[in-house]
Amino acid sequence: MDVKKKKYVFIILSALLLIFMLLMSRSSGVNCDEVLHYKQSLSVYNFFASFGKDTAALHTPVTHLQYYGQSYDNLSTILIKLFRIDDIYGFRHIMSTIAGWLEILITALFAVWLSGYEAGIFVLLLFAVSPTFLGHAQNNLKDIPFALAYISGTYFTFRFLSSERKISFTDVILLTLSIAFCISIRPGGLILICFLFLFFVIYYFFRFYKSGRGILQEAIVKLLIIIAVSATAYFLSIILWPFALQDPIRNPFISYNIMVHYPDTFRQIFEGKAEWSDSMPWYYLPKSMAITIPLIVSLGFMLFSLFIIFRRKSDKGMYYWFLLTTILLPVLFVIIKQSNLYSSWRHFLFVYPAIILLAAVAYADIFYFIRNKAGKLIIVLVLVLCSLHPLLFILRNIPYSYIYYNQLVGGLQGAYGNYETDYYYVNQREASEWLIKYLDENRITDHVVVGSNFSAEWFFRKKPLVRNIYFRNEERSMFDWDYYIVTNRYISPYQLKNKIWPPANALKIIYADDVPIAAVLKRKSKADYQGYTALTDSRNIDAANFFSQAIKTDSCDEGIFYNFAVALNRLGEYEKADSALNVCLKLNPDFELALMYLGNISAERGDKEKARSYYRRLIGVNRKYEEAYEALAKMNE
Fold first, then answer.
1. Mind spelling out the 3-state secondary structure of 235-270?
2. What CA–CA distance (Å, rounded) separates 175 from 163?
3. Torsion sign (Cα): 389, 394, 395, 396
4. Exposure of 635 in the CB half-sphere (CA atoms within 13 A)
5. C-alpha distances in Å from residue 307, one per residue of 62, 375, 382, 475
6. Mean pLDDT throughout 338-365?
7. What is the dihedral of CA 244, 248, 249, 252, to 10 degrees?
8. Mean pLDDT in residue range 326-343
9. Cα angle vertex 246, ends 241, 249, to 5°?
10. End-to-end distance of the chain based on CA atoms, in angstroms?
11. β-strands 267-270, 273-276: how paired?
12. Environment class of residue 469 by beta-carbon count within 10 Å: exposed (0-12), middle (13-18) or buried (19+)?
């Protein structure tokens, strides 16, 4: 196939991928970060609209979003306001998809520049079978644009360095804008400036070694341009960032230091245990990538690691080593710094385009070295077979493609209960839309309270009689609600593995590859809530009676049995209380309130050894449960 035909294939595949991604975005759910970042973007918009008088964007003690530039979110909100767009999240998803597609296109053009159209075509094909990336491209206006800026900045850095004396003004402008865009989303984008200087020094060190003083003038000119590019990009990056504008020199670096050790920590499932994000093993990031990146991509990346030996003497051989640096250095940095990591490797989506690019170059090399048609046909068949697993997952689970796991852990079913799945709460859209349809079909016109374990207000915005409230799954008996939308985020891995969750009486269950990721519950009785209300009012007899009724209609709620035990214990019915607590721990062996309560009542009964065992068990479940440490210390006095 000649170059012209390859170019046509490249263009057609790019267009088809854009169409497919736009269609995917139409079914996308609203992720939990979107809700927070959209609210912050409104505060940023109000900051500028009020000429700095509205300072809400500068005070975000809960979300810490003042430390994010989040320029792409801010730009999207400006367009929403300018064109008075009603479907806010639908528009945001289109914006996210455009950023994702541009990321693919620039990576493919990068591959063409490095190795030819074969590599560019492979980039397009590998992205097309990358579920995690395509899933995030639907609704992630933070990590996807950052990844776009990162690969774009790397590409134009290489083009700038390779230009020698024929410096392209266009490349310089695009390099400046790429670096500015990267920093404007996250302060970590400053790494592109570091790479720019690092690669310049290495590049001209080897050029000087080969050519001598003849390149000195060229190097000085480029160094001056680099300084100008870096300074310009830095100040462009803070234009839509209120916090940085308060102190343009100091505040971006304050933000960077905070992001390196993010102050908030989250419980998440990893290797079958719920653990805090700042206590993950050092290999959390590389393992998360290894078990979720399609094997066809991982295989190509490993093959490239072998083929780089043959590439080292090519005209652009040095750039492959630079590309490896842009992948490995950030990963090694957070491992060494023991950074607070969570949500799988979504914060490191920015290294994925370079991984794809190098894998694509490896496959292009294979096709170059294998000359006979039979050999090429075998390679094609192998690649097609390797692509089927991720491709079929995408087609079956378009809104949830980001929760893909590869064959190393047995796919999504093998990962269920051992690793996080829908950590972004994307399934709330499908669950909410189903519930709205259910309410309409059953002509329920009274006021309805819908609970959820993350805010679902947006989905019920056109239902004035529906009120949405937030509470955790294990606390559902302690709130007044009629229906409950619950995702599998923050559900005990024991309950997931043993099919205790979702409850058997769920009204609707949302699945991805036969794995439950969300459920809609209908409350059959409010005896549990009435019991809890009576318990908080110290009406212990009434509470016990209500809980006795409640367990007849819901025998799968550990919270009911825990509160029932508290009421019985207050009434002196210790054996019944112990029995209720045993049932509670059978439903959820990691239920922290019950473990703490068992430790306390054991201590009250004089059984210090038993009390210690419960406190230690609780600390094993949650190493940050301070009351357990305090109680254990008292036991040792």
1. HHCCCCCHHHHHCCCCHHHHHHHHHHCCCCCCEEEE
2. 13
3. positive
4. 24
5. 48, 18, 19, 55
6. 95
7. 20
8. 94
9. 90
10. 81
11. antiparallel
12. middle
Question: What does the pLDDT look like over 459-490, one tens digit per residue?
Answer: 999 999 999 999 999 999 999 999 999 999 99
Reduce the DSSP state of residue 338 to 3 states and report it. coil
Q: Check if the beta carbon of residue 402 is closer than 8 Å to that of residue 424.
A: yes
Q: Which two tokens stand for residue 571?
A: 């009434």
Cβ within 8 Å of residue 403, ≥6 positions away? 135, 397, 412, 421, 422, 512, 517
Contacts of the segment 529-538: beta carbons below 8 A, 24+ positions apart: 529/477, 529/478, 529/479, 529/480, 531/477, 531/560, 531/563, 531/564, 531/567, 532/477, 532/478, 532/563, 534/567, 535/563, 535/566, 535/567, 538/570
Give the H or E element holding residue 467.
strand 466-470
Own/partner contacts of 376-384, CB < 8 Å, gap of 24 or more, are 383/296
The residue to which tokens 């593995």 are assigned: 497
Question: Please, what CATH class does the domain formed by 527-635 belong to?
Answer: mainly alpha
* 575-584 contacts at long range (C-beta below 8 A, 24 or more positions apart): 577/601, 584/558
| Alpha-carbon dihedral 474, 476, 478, 482, rounded to 10 degrees | 180
Dig out the tokens for 239 from the structure: 């234009």
The residues, any chain, with a CB within 8 Å of residue 411's CB and separated by 6 or more, are 389, 393, 405, 513
User: Tens digit of pLDDT for each residue in 495-531?
Assistant: 999 999 999 889 999 999 999 999 999 999 999 999 9
Q: Which of 593, 527, 604, 586 is nearest to 566 (CA)?
A: 593
CB 45 within 8 A of CB 77: yes
State the maximum Cα–Cα separation within the chain, in Å, rounded to a whole number.
Answer: 94
Rounded Cα gap, residues 286 and 267, in angstroms: 19
Give the long-range contacts of residues 410-418, CB within 8 A, separation 24 or more.
411/513, 412/512, 412/513, 412/515, 413/513, 413/514, 413/515, 415/291, 416/496, 416/497, 416/515, 417/269, 417/272, 417/493, 417/496, 417/497, 418/269, 418/270, 418/271, 418/272, 418/493, 418/497
Give every strand in the sheet of 448-452, ordered side by side.
Answer: 466-470, 448-452, 483-487, 515-522, 508-512
Band of pLDDT at residue 313, cut at 50, 70 and 90: low
| Extents of the domains making up the chain | 3-403, 428-522, 527-635
Question: Using CA atoms, how far apart are residues 395 and 448, in angstroms rounded to an integer?
Answer: 35
Evaluate if residue 311 carries a pLDDT over 70. Answer: no
CB-CB contact of 244 with 253 (8 Å): no
Question: Percent of the chain, pLDDT > 90?
Answer: 87
592-609 core/surface letters (b: 16 or more CB in 10 A; e: else): ebbbbbbbbbbbeeeeee
Question: What is the Cα–Cα distance from 520 to 195, expressed in whole angstroms?
Answer: 49
Single-letter amino acid code for the residue at 177: L
Residue 259 CA: distances (Å) to CA of 220, 266, 367, 487 = 34, 15, 43, 28
- Amino acid 74 reads N
Please report, as a single letter, which amino acid is at residue 589: P
